[in-house]
């Protein structure tokens, strides 16, 4: 039976429902070109081991090149009777080089070491593209941070007014986790660069084939030290699923801010028309769908990770067919991020911020109270006392229906003997922001430095 790589010990073929369950071409066909690259490397190992003559090896390589061409041109597609990508490609190879030579390619390898290698090759390629996508979001955040340098906004903890900050500082706070995500992808790439080819079914190859040769040919740094681990482990796939999920979570948190900022109540930002959608009934609507889909897809990416880990947790060594279930979640994660990340970059890069509105809200909720306490500490008052006095100042203002900025010299003795006129000078949003000038702080001078640091980090990614 063409397209099925086993059968000798069976009297008949599989039942239809058995075959339907087993079949994986509908998702593993995307690995076809990686599989062919593996076969070309494997053919060289077969030749080096004396299992193919020079002439056979040359014909095999030409046949595999033609096979790749047919796959790329869409001339070879999986047939209904093909069990998986490996079977479909062997069928296609035999069509090109004939059944005798085509039937030699499978010596000394198993679909178990093949698939474990292909998924690594595939992920190495894809995570580089994901890293480039993420870089687009970093560029969008950095250019907005630069454009609005100096604009203040309310900083929040518990979503309550906390202390004034620079908008640029807040935007850059979303950039750093994404820098770490890209670093995670690079770290992962190093671990993925170890080839399982040559592990065969589980115990290694007996035909004198060189796993190192195949590894080098496929651009891996080395081959696995343990053939059982090579075929049975999927921790690297789970790690990839984690990084994809973390990227989703980081974009989701950024998106949640955008959603809040674009409400009438906040009024901090407006979405560009090209990156928002309307309502079929409410004519006034401009909805943050990109941000909402980012939030939604983060849930899906987390599901892919947890599903995969649940699949792995009870598996005895070595290969088990359960492992086939690693593919759809990781493919889905890659596909989702490829559509999502560029849209998030577009949305962020085209947001219009409203600095006047943010400046108006920045001192609300007594967000300068810490500045009162810090002023007292600078004039020698213990912080515990300063904290009390600042709290009393807030209570005084609240009772009088004024903000901290409205305080006048005459108010001070009524609140506390510790308050001197100097406190009135620090009670501005700009002064508060400028005073937080330690490394990593929100002072404009530090944020300017930080922006340069981010750009340097981005350039070294
Ligand atoms: N399709 C399988 C997978 O994705 C690889 C093939 C191994 N199948 C087998 N029956 N040994 O893991």
Automatic annotation (TrEMBL):
The keyword rRNA processing does not apply. This is Argininosuccinate lyase. It is found in: Cytoplasm. It comes from the Bacteria. Pfam families: ASL_C2 (PF14698), Lyase_1 (PF00206). Residues 366-434 form the Argininosuccinate lyase C-terminal domain. Residues 13-303 form the Fumarate lyase N-terminal domain. Its main location: cytoplasm. GO terms for molecular function: lyase activity. InterPro entries: Arg_succ_lyase_C, Argininosuccinate_lyase, Fumarase/histidase_N, Fumarate_lyase_CS, Fumarate_lyase_fam, Fumarate_lyase_N, L-Aspartase-like. Belongs to the lyase 1 family. Argininosuccinate lyase subfamily. PROSITE patterns: FUMARATE_LYASES (PS00163). The gene is argH. Keywords: Amino-acid biosynthesis, Arginine biosynthesis, Cytoplasm, Lyase. The keyword Amino-acid biosynthesis applies. Pathway: Amino-acid biosynthesis; L-arginine biosynthesis; L-arginine from L-ornithine and carbamoyl phosphate: step 3/3. Its EC number is 4.3.2.1. NCBIfam families: argH. It comes from Tessaracoccus lubricantis. It catalyses: 2-(N(omega)-L-arginino)succinate = fumarate + L-arginine.
